[in-house]
Amino acid sequence: MVAYLRYQLTLVTTLNAPCTWNHQRRRHSHCQQSPVPFLSQPPGTLKKLSSKWMFECSALSKQGERFFSSLANARATGDTSATNRLIKKFVAASPKSVALDALSHLLSPHSSYHHLSSLAFPLYLKITDTQWFDWNPKLVANLAALLDKQGQQKELATLISDSTSKLQLRERDLALFYCNLVESHSKQNSIGGFDDCLARLTELVHNSNSVYVKRQGYKSMISGLCEMGRPREAEELIDEMRGKGVKPSVFEFRCIVHAHGRLGLFEEMQRSLVQMESAGFEIDTICSNMILSSYGVHNALPEMVLFLKKMKDLAIPFSLRTFNSVLNSCPTFMSVIQNSNAYPISIQELIEILSGDEAMLVEALAGFSVLEETMKWNALEAKLDLHGMHLGSAYLIMLLWVEEMRKRLSSGNYVIPAEITVVCGSGKHSSIRGESPVKQMVKEMMVKLRSPMRIDRKNIGCFIAKGAVVKEWLC
């Protein structure tokens, strides 16, 4: 799967007392020490922050790949000075997006470059010297969580001290920074760092008169506890929120439902669903996908079948994520699509080779096709877009698409498009740049179906053919 890191900062105002990092891991007390100057900015100053910073990390850029390859070679020889020179040269020669993209890969717990993650801090330091650098709490929180996980306590203490000194008079910003820290530590599964930040955020929330601070603080604490596999503590915070006059949102309930589900505590998950509905929130597609993925993690296919029927009864729409969650949990189905020689070329053929529960799941998904949101049809073009689909979902959608195309082209009720297009991507956003499993699967299906559709010369991530030619093929 593609790993995504999203950084978003919304400016806020107001402040609180200075905060320091609990270097000794005392959960409910904090050392009182003077903030330590850090980086090129003096304590107490803060560069103007952009009102919105969105950054995504998918496949590493080619420039980043070359950089990491050189770093790996330098690390292998133990040449520290060469490593530092490479970092300095890379940052100086790279635009902002490329440098931050490389840093995000080193910070991500899902990165394939974790063997180089110890270089994230030196890379960050060099980035802070650039003219385009803007201090960002989400970025710093991710770095702090990584340093804590790596046991780099000295660097961690300096980073936190510098960061909190910038925010010591801004209550909202300080609280949001600790919200980011709680979330980042939970994603890194750093127990000590998480508990320290949780204790500090709890203190900020309890001492604040701001409803905004309380709401955001509880949201992050509940989300973090659920991510750490502690949903019962999160439920206690729900009660605490109500006692403080802060109404829980659907987000908090979804986190608790999903946390129970991931742990296989299905009775508790159902109880949380009842509580969510009692609070006035309906079970929607997002919540349903969380439940389905939870069943899938524990191979609870019969429960998944029953829940899909419940979704049908409640008229809860299916989404691409619904397809992804269900099909990724079907072992026989997944083994079929991993063997290109065994591709069934129709829904009926596919169902015949699946077991009882898997067959029912595929039938349920086929009955609620998402083609309407993935396929466009007009006189100029009929286009199927497979972006966002995992391999299994793309395969099933392709089978459904062939049936739907045959039906429309032969009915006489639809205009024949001038061109037919299937968009599968070229691997730009795959975990390995340039390798698209979906494109390879579509290509093999086209060959097996003897389709006239061919790779577009102008866009290698698409298969195209004239509408009249496709009609002749299918009808």
UniProtKB/TrEMBL annotation:
Q: Does the keyword Aminoacyl-tRNA synthetase apply?
A: no
Keywords recorded for this protein, A-Z? Repeat
Q: Which residues form the Smr domain?
A: 384-474
Pfam families listed in its UniProt record: PPR (PF01535)
Q: Does the keyword Repeat apply?
A: yes
InterPro entries in alphabetical order: PPR_rpt, Smr_dom, Smr_dom_sf, TPR-like_helical_dom_sf
User: Which parts are the PPR repeats?
Assistant: 214-248
Superkingdom of the source species: Eukaryota
Give the protein family. Belongs to the PPR family. P subfamily.
Name this polypeptide is given: Smr domain-containing protein
